[in-house]
Fold:
Amino acid sequence: MKIKITKTHHSRMNETDFEKLGFGEVFSDHMFSMEYRNGEWVSPEIIPFGKIEIYPSLCSLHYGQVVFEGLKAFRAGNRVNVFRPEKYHERLNKSCQRLCIPEVSYDVFITALKELTVLDKEWIPKKKGNSLYIRPFVFASDNFLGVKIADTYRFMIITSPVGSYYKEGINPVKLVTSGEYIRAAKGGLGAAKTPANYASSLLPAQEAKKKGFTQVLWLDGLERKYIEESGAMNVFFRIDNELITPALGGTILEGVTRNTVIHLAKKWDMDVVERRISIDEVLLASNEGRLKEAFGTGTAAVISPVGWIQHESEKITINGGKIGTLSQRLYDEITALQYGEKADTSGWCYSI
Ligand SMILES: *Cc1c(COP(=O)(O)O)cnc(C)c1O
Structure:
């Protein structure tokens, strides 16, 4: 693929304080854009980051035919490591299939990502813990208010230098189950990375925050019994010597970090089990002293220890509200691989 490149005349690098990076607040100088029309992806280009022109009748604003991804690039000495891009690409296309969006080839995905990252290399933060967050997304671009599968689309990639998720060390989160809301039901959009899932989670998350919790711990939509995931994180429980995570079944997002954790824990000879796990089982294990630790996994935070869970009138504290040994080991191992401090024997880093 040949990408047309138009460079900016006015870099915003100097206006950016790299000591005070939040998450997704500032954007690099350039962005990638490509269009889908007449049945094919055409006109790939890299242009200065900026406004895009749309009509108010843009169908994806009304009906949500949109998918996105979130991955990261890290400085590893003189090189740049993009962590597991083929996994994120695979999931992008799965999401595309569910939302009737034309798939994007790996060649297009990786070439666009590579050229954009090379062009904006200076935007990749130098400090350990910081990284360049990469946000590919596809949206339907027909101007039409009838409900139908669109004929035209736009695939874009924007990037944002981000700070470490943990400014003052890793802080365990407080989760609460919701008696009222669900995230996804079987047959719905739960396994796709699509804005609709986020839209539906805003109100429950706001209510949880008002009550002093960090996030909602989602239970299944049918029986309100089995644990699914939390916020934009998959969840793991270490009970006795088993590491248990909810099995994928169409309602849970298949996290890349989840997959990385499963691989590493198996490599470390742990018993890793993907199965249904009920909230009652977790509470019981906790009361019997068998729940050693719990944590969430996601690209943004990598590993997020769970210190407290509340379900109805029952509250549990996990590992004294502190990060567990496995959580810490996983965090250290994954970040060491990402920053090139450890040999990447699994071939997870795409090095530029
Ligand atoms: C993105 C996401 C995750 C985490 O996936 P990673 O690939 O590990 O970043 C988990 N749950 C939801 C709902 C998500 O959108």
